[in-house]
């Protein structure tokens, strides 16, 4: 799995750098010249296929064994996130420009847009909840989370207001979702079932860009930056990275979930 993922990530990077590509729906057409800028990845079929959401609005499909782009689907204007549901048969994507959630049905390497749902301004992250019957979307500038019921006719069932601009989301257990601030150090816990913000704490630092559970499932790993405002901004300090630090923070999950 790790080998497939490494190959797929390398191919995804190449997709972003190369200007030419293929179209799954029109294999006979001349390859398009397009700067894709991949922003999110999703694996399917035990790592066989890697799907990349691109800022240009397309979803590229990579065969990880061959490290080859085998298809591409036009999905929107500016994609900001992509994730697979637990069963692997559906992909969820957010379009930051259009303010929509895209539900894409997957058959092998081919994708079909099943639904487009308006979720509000600037959606930037989406994660499935539980068995994948619902999902949660973070909307950056409205400072909201949208809880969405997926199915034959997807719909927004709850809107949850926050005190900060959210980006990253991490569903953990019992309907709880950890929400990270896009800019400063806010870290909130939301109960998606009740539509309630249970806690809102501020970590030292800013620019949280990674959240994951530790291997034992008892710790929360957070990557972020920390501005050392007590260090002078001399040429040497800036050059050697003494002013701005990149940190990996480990937090006890039980403490994070405690109100």
Could you name the key traits of this structure?
single chain; mainly beta; 3 helices; 259 residues
Determine the fraction of residues in helical runs and give it as a percent range: 10-25%
- Poorly predicted runs are 17-25
Structural class: mainly beta
Number of helix segments?
3
Major sheet details = 4 strands, antiparallel
- Distance N to C terminus: 37 Å
Mean pLDDT: 91
Helices and strands, in order, run as: HEEEEEEEEEEEEEEEEEEHEH
Beta-strand portion reads: over 45%
Radius of gyration: 19 Å
Q: Order of strands across the widest beta sheet?
A: 1-2-3-4
* Count of strand segments: 19
Oligomeric assembly: single chain
* Basic shape: globular
Write a structural description.
The protein is mainly beta. Helices cover about 10% and strands about 50% of the residues. The strands form five sheets. It has a four-stranded antiparallel β-sheet with strand order 1-2-3-4, covered by helices on one side. A hairpin with a 5-residue loop joins β5 and β6. About 5% of the residues have low confidence.
């Amino acid at each position: 799995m790790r080998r497939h993922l490494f190959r797929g990530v390398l191919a995804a990077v190449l997709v972003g750098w190369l200007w030419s590509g293929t179209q799954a729906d029109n294999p006979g057409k001349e390859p398009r010249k397009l700067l894709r800028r991949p922003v999110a990845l999703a694996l399917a079929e035990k790592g066989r296929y890697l799907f990349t959401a691109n800022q240009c609005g397309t979803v590229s499909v990579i065969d990880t064994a061959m490290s080859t782009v085998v298809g591409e689907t036009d999905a929107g204007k500016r994609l900001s996130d992509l994730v697979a549901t637990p069963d692997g048969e559906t992909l969820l994507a957010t379009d930051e420009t259009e303010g929509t959630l895209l539900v894409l049905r997957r058959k092998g390497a081919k994708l079909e847009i099943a639904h487009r749902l308006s979720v509000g301004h600037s959606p930037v992250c989406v994660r499935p909840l539980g068995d994948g019957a619902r999902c949660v979307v973070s909307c950056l500038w409205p400072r909201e989370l949208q809880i969405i019921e997926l199915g034959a006719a997807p719909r927004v069932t709850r809107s949850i207001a926050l005190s900060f601009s959210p980006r990253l989301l991490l569903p953990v257990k019992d309907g709880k979702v950890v929400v990270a601030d896009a800019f400063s150090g806010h870290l909130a816990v939301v109960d998606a079932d009740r539509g309630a913000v249970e806690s809102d704490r501020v970590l030292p630092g800013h620019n949280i860009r990674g959240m994951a559970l530790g291997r034992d499932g008892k710790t929360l790993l957070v990557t972020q930056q920390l501005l050392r405002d007590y260090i002078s901004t001399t040429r040497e300090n800036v050059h050697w990275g003494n002013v701005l630090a990149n940190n990996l923070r480990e937090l006890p999950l039980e403490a994070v979930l405690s109100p």
